[in-house]
């Protein structure tokens, strides 16, 4: 059953909000049904990842979004997502049929329309989830086409690191057995982790592997997105990435 991008560093890093995932002991491990491959040397692995990054033109899906803010307030929402690599994404979330927020990430910024009802416990969470809209840009693998990458094998992991010297650094960890990116991290200039994006629950969609669980993590809170009804490379509506008229551009 089918379940369902920052090749550039998220900016500003101080505005990144997200996430810590908690799993209960009674949950059963998720079984992925995806191909396994022979382990390759770093150059060949990177070439394969670059080839894979050209596979996805569009993605759409629906599911749930669980968000925990820095103050401990938590909410679970229904969510619909559309993505068009390399730099267009949109998330719409609602609860009990009532809209909570609408996030649109475009090349020139992120727009947010959120509920103005201060009596709702989920009021204000749209801005907390805003970094997730930018983070979708990582999912198409375009980071692996970035110049001056440093790569190495580390056991079961293929490590890819941006070659920034005096600024933020991005590190990707790829499962060598399945050639699937499993984690992206952004580190500040002194090596402290500022943001983590974890990709899990991969499914095989006609030969294209896609993560159906996306977890964004920082010191500020947690966002967990679980997707189903995923469709890849279908035509999207002409206005799929047109922000609502009342949406405001985030700083």
Plain-language structure description:
By secondary structure, this protein is mainly beta. The chain is 9% helix and 43% strand. It has two helices and 13 strands. It has helices at 42-52, 125-135; strands at 59-68, 74-84, 88-95, 98-106, 109-114, 149-154, 157-162, 169-175, 180-187, 193-205, 208-218, 221-232, 248-249. The protein has a 13-stranded antiparallel β-sheet with strand order 6-7-8-9-10-11-12-1-2-3-4-5-13, covered by helices on one side. The longest helix has 11 residues, at 42-52. The chain starts with 41 loop residues before the first helix and ends with a strand. Residues 1-27 and 118-124 have low confidence and may be disordered.
């Amino acid at each position: 059953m089918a379940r369902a991008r920052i090749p550039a560093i998220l900016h500003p890093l101080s505005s990144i909000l997200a996430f810590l995932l908690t799993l209960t002991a009674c949950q059963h491990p998720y079984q992925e049904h995806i191909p396994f491959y022979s382990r390759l040397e770093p150059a060949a692995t990177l070439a394969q990842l670059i080839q894979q990054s050209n596979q996805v033109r569009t993605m759409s899906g629906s599911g749930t979004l669980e968000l925990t803010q820095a103050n401990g307030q938590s909410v679970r929402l229904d969510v619909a997502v559309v993505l068009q690599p390399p730099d267009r994404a949109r998330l719409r979330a609602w609860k009990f049929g009532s809209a909570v927020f609408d996030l649109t990430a475009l090349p020139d910024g992120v727009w947010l329309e959120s509920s103005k009802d201060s009596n709702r416990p989920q009021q204000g969470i749209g801005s907390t989830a805003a970094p997730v809209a930018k983070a979708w840009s990582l999912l198409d693998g375009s980071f692996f086409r970035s110049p001056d990458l440093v790569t190495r094998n580390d056991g079961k992991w293929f490590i890819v690191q941006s070659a920034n010297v005096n600024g933020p650094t991005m590190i990707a960890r790829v499962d060598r057995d399945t050639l699937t990116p499993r984690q992206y991290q952004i580190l500040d200039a002194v090596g402290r982790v500022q943001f983590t994006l974890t990709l899990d629950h991969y499914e095989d969609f006609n030969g294209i592997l896609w993560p159906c669980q996306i977890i964004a993590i920082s010191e500020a809170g947690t966002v967990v997105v679980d997707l189903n009804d995923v469709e890849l490379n279908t035509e999207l509506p002409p206005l799929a990435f047109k922000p609502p008229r009342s949406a405001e551009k985030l700083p």
